[in-house]
Specification:
Elements: H1 16-22, H2 32-42, H3 55-61, H4 66-80, H5 84-115, E1 122-127, E2 130-135, E3 144-148, E4 156-168, H6 170-173, E5 179-180, E6 199-200, E7 205-217, H7 223-233, H8 240-269, H9 274-288, H10 293-310, E8 313-315, H11 319-325, E9 329-333, H12 334-338, E10 344-350, E11 353-356, H13 366-373, E12 378-379, E13 385-386, H14 389-400, H15 405-411, E14 414-421, E15 426-432, E16 438-444, H16 446-450, E17 453-458, E18 461-464, H17 467-482, E19 486-495, H18 504-507, E20 511-520, H19 527-536, E21 540-544, H20 549-559, E22 570-572, H21 573-577, H22 581-587, E23 593-595, H23 599-611, E24 616-620, H24 626-631, E25 634-638, H25 644-648, E26 652-654, H26 660-700, H27 707-725, H28 751-775, H29 783-808, H30 816-819, H31 825-843, H32 847-850, H33 858-869, H34 871-886
Parallel strand pairs: 9-21, 9-24, 17-20, 21-23, 22-23, 24-25, 25-26
Antiparallel strand pairs: 1-2, 1-3, 3-7, 4-5, 4-6, 4-7, 8-26, 10-11, 10-20, 12-13, 14-15, 15-16, 16-19, 17-18, 19-20
Length: about 900
């Protein structure tokens, strides 16, 4: 049935009474009957998963590529004219390619599904006037939802009660710092999600305090749902690999048609039968089409995905493997990708000096005592810290230094507190000491706390806080803040009696300043090196975050995304709004850091780089990253911290959330493309050799090879070595070269001239062997035997020639003697297997009759072998001059 539309209004601009009235509810919540009715009307509170494609649909989609369509046409033509064997062989190759594609897609989906968290979070709601717990998917608009620290917000709420409520919304806004909520009506309808303080959003996390609100949006009507809708309208981009294969298919088709027509015309001009010439032209077309290329490319990509999976990079679609290798720009989210998504103390100021958090500290120092006492962090049974990220960072620091926080608090238990509020920016707790006195612990904003301090603790000695010392502390606070550190101050005092007035006036006066802490969501340890390696490989890293400008800039400088002394290079979302798309496309290269941005901004940035002709990868883990992940040439999601929406929009998922895995993947992608190039060079040079052999032989009136010979050579001596070339290791300088870019093709980097001259060599050598065989026959008096021997020698020469030539394409320009003959075990086995399969059809009686070939004597085999192996020294000579004239070592 069609669902009832939910209200779509700016509820944050409306007061509590208005919102409750519009949602048809009260502060006591809905009745069970009304909730059941609304479930039917609005549906479950969950995001649409979309329809899964059936196996049949996935299989049929494998036949969309242009090259596959060309091969299917060849199958049809071969079948029409009676070449059933040819048709069957080509069809088997095409179907094998499709099966491999479906298998890999299914395997990737299984890997992604394994990462999903299957549990549905619980939600506490008011029903029939009582507070009950139910599955979050049962929530409906109008429910009254209760929140407390540790909860995942299960729907979009308009809050009407907040007790020190803080919610971490990084999955939606990109900011790692929790937002303090306020129920006050907001007048401006155009404020961003991060400024809607009286709202709580689905999939965000409550880190502190408690709250209550009315559900105003569920499922696809939430802010998360709106982003999911954006994904369905995002344009799918064709990967460079798909563009290259399509382009290659078109080139080959045009070339094949021209050659076949010319050959048919020449034959008719020479007086040959039209049907005979048509079949000969089809033979040439079969020789020109690399039947195994789609399957070989698929297999090479699949092998690449297996290697990457072992390194924690899960590929969701095959072309993504190669796309990484061509990446020019990595647009990366900051929180959780470049950083730990975990606030961490970095500096501690006490006794008049700034100390690095890695240094040892005396646990008796009052600054450590205060940071753990004025703190609402809860320690779970498994040791996990639950609470506001800022406060958990303090407790974690103390634990790391060897303090048993729970034991210390049990000795000096909390008796009372003055909760934090945004006006005074402080929090205080009162603890009873074993001697009967009371310890007052206070933490908060340095400027506010200093106003309440009259003394300072310096190495355990209490001294008056004079104006000069006060200014020194404020200057230190400023210095730490300019490093994008969040600074909090600590103070305390010991009193004889429990204060009667538990307010800021009765507790937070005449305090002793203990020190300050500076904290930040730190960069991942491996991220800086990953950025450096990417830069070395000619890849530009661009940070895109919803965080504050100063924080983003500081992290970018620490990572090397911005140079130490670089001026500019940072743009905020508000500034980006003032730039139109055309102007931005011309200026996008000026910026490496974007701060305070929305999902729409991220898509604009990715598209601007794409408009500049760059291949863009986008990393991210939040829901807010998903549209850009889908728009980018390759989206890279995070498997652990990533939301299901972001993983679903990605081409690749990092199972370990490790940024350095991207660099490994880039190298693997470059290796995959290089190996595909080698396979294409090998296949097309071999096919060119076959075409030249057939074309020139036809001009000379020689009947030299039948379609079955060509197909057997293409299937046996082409396919296995070409696949094994996909296992060649990456060349040593793979990550020291610039990205090849979108305009690069499979023929770039010297591949085209190489395959042309190598194909010519193969054709000349093969024709020479036929000429020699017919002019130096073993059976001098039998024309049919002379022709059979010559045909067999050509068949054997062409097959072995291609096997020896496979060694040449291990590198386009480097000498085979440098690259090495036998380093790739799979390649060596493939060569032996292919040679065996080629030989059996000549040597085994019955098979040789089926293939119209005959056994050869020793002298003939020596000529065949010598002619075939000559391709190696010939190519080595050309490579030598290529290196010399291109200044390659």
């Amino acid at each position: 049935m069609e669902r009832k539309q939910q209200l779509k209004e700016a509820f944050f601009t409306q007061d509590e009474e208005t919102v409750l009235k519009k949602m048809g509810t009260t502060q006591k919540g809905l009745t069970s009957n009304e909730a059941e009715k609304r479930i039917i009307e609005y549906g479950l509170n969950e995001l649409d998963q979309g329809k899964n494609k059936s196996i049949i649909v996935k299989f049929l989609e494998q036949f969309k590529d242009f090259m596959i369509l060309v091969l299917l046409a060849a199958v049809l033509i071969s079948a029409i004219f009676g070449n059933i064997t040819d048709a069957i062989i080509i069809l088997v190759v095409v179907v094998l390619n499709a099966v491999l594609g479906v298998y890999q897609e299914a395997k990737a989906e299984e890997a992604i599904d394994a990462l999903k968290k299957m549990s549905s979070p619980e939600a506490r709601v008011k029903r029939d006037g009582n507070v009950i717990s139910l599955k979050s998917d049962q929530l409906v608009p109008g429910d009254i939802l209760l929140l407390e620290a540790g909860d995942v917000v299960a729907a979009d709420l308009r809050l009407f009660e907040s007790a020190s409520l803080k919610i971490e919304e990084s999955a939606l806004t990109g900011e790692s710092e929790a937002v303090e909520k306020d129920v006050t009506v907001i007048e401006n309808e155009k404020v961003g999600i991060g400024e809607r303080l009286n709202m709580a959003f689905m999939n965000s996390n409550v880190t502190y305090g408690r709250g209550e609100g009315v559900v105003v949006g569920t499922g696809m009507n939430t802010e998360v749902g709106k982003i999911a809708v954006m994904l369905t309208t995002s344009e799918e981009t064709m990967t460079p690999l798909q563009e290259n294969l399509n382009r290659l298919g078109k080139y080959l088709t045009v070339a094949i048609l021209i050659i076949a027509v010319v050959m048919f015309g020449v034959g008719m001009y020479n007086g040959r039968e039209w049907l005979d010439m048509l079949l000969t032209s089809i033979s040439l077309a079969v020789a020109a089409i690399p039947e195994g290329l789609p399957a070989i490319v698929t297999i090479i990509l699949a092998l690449g995905t297996q290697k990457m999976a072992k390194r924690k990079a899960l590929i969701r679609n095959l072309p993504a493997v190669e796309t990484l290798g061509s990446t020019d720009i990595i647009c990366t989210d900051k929180t959780g990708t470049l950083t730990m998504n975990k606030m961490t103390i970095e500096k501690v100021y006490f006794n008049g000096v700034i100390q690095d958090a890695r240094e040892d500290i005396d646990l008796g120092t009052q600054v450590v005592r205060v940071m753990t006492y004025s703190n609402d962090t809860q320690v779970a049974n498994d040791g996990t810290l639950i609470g506001d990220p800022t406060e958990t960072a303090m407790v974690q620091y103390a634990i790391d230094k060897g303090m048993n926080v729970q034991e210390e608090l049990s000795k000096e238990p909390r008796m009372a507190e003055v909760p934090f509020d945004s006006d005074r920016k402080l929090m205080s707790t009162i603890h009873q000491l074993p001697d009967g006195k009371f310890f007052i612990s206070a933490k908060g904003a340095p400027d506010e706390l200093l106003k309440r301090c009259t003394q300072i603790d310096n190495k355990g000695k209490i001294a008056p806080l004079d104006e000069k010392t006060n200014q020194t502390i404020l200057d230190t606070n400023h210095d730490l803040a300019t490093q994008a550190l969040r600074v909090l101050a600590m103070a305390y005092k010991i009193v004889d009696q429990m204060p009667k007035d538990i307010t800021t006036q009765g507790v937070e006066q005449n305090l002793v300043f203990a020190g300050m802490t500076g904290m930040i969501d730190p960069e991942r340890a491996e991220a800086k090196d990953a950025v450096r390696v990417a830069k070395q490989a000619g890849i530009r890293s661009v940070m895109i975050t919803g965080d504050h400008r100063d924080t983003a800039e500081a992290i970018a400088r620490r990572l090397g995304i911005l140079a130490e002394n670089q001026q500019g290079g940072v743009l905020t979302g508000a500034e980006l709004n003032q730039i139109d798309d055309n102007d931005f496309a011309s200026r996008v290269k000026d910026y490496s850091v974007y701060a305070r941005v929305s999902p729409e901004h991220k898509v604009r940035i990715v598209k601007a780089w794409q408009k500049a002709g760059k291949i863009v990868a986008m990393t991210g883990d939040g829901v807010n990253d998903a549209p850009a992940l889908k728009t980018a040439d390759i989206g890279i999601g995070m498997g652990i911290t990533g939301t299901e929406v972001s993983k679903g929009a990605s081409d690749m998922v990092l199972a370990d959330d490790n940024f350095s895995t991207i660099v490994i993947s880039v190298e693997e992608g470059r290796k995959v493309f290089s190996n595909i190039q080698k396979a294409i060079q090998f296949l097309l040079s071999a096919n060119l050799g076959e075409v030249l052999t057939l074309f020139i032989a036809t001009l000379l009136g020689w009947s030299i090879l039948a379609p079955v010979h060509i197909l057997w050579i293409n299937l046996v001596t082409d396919t296995f070595p070409a696949i094994a070339l996909g296992l060649e290791p990456a060349e040593a300088d793979a990550m020291k070269k610039p990205p090849r870019g979108r305009k690069a093709t499979f023929f770039s980097n010297g591949v085209l001239p190489s395959l042309i001259y190598q194909g010519i060599f193969e054709g000349i050598i093969t024709l020479f062997v036929y000429w020699w065989a017919t002019n130096n026959p073993v059976h001098t008096n039998d024309v049919e035997l002379i022709h059979a021997d010559a045909l067999t020698m050509v068949f054997a020469t062409l097959g072995l020639l291609q096997l020896f030539h496979a060694f040449n394409v291990k590198s386009i320009k480097k000498s085979l003697f440098i690259v090495g003959f036998f380093k790739n075990k799979a390649f060596n086995l493939a060569i032996l297997l292919s040679a065996a399969l080629l030989s059996v059809v000549i040597l085994i009686p019955g098979l040789n009759d089926a293939f119209s070939v005959s056994p050869l004597n020793v002298e003939q085999w020596l000529l065949v072998f010598g002619a075939a192996i000559s391709i190696i020294p010939l190519v080595e000579i050309v490579k030598f001059f290529m290196r010399k004239f291109s200044n390659d070592e």
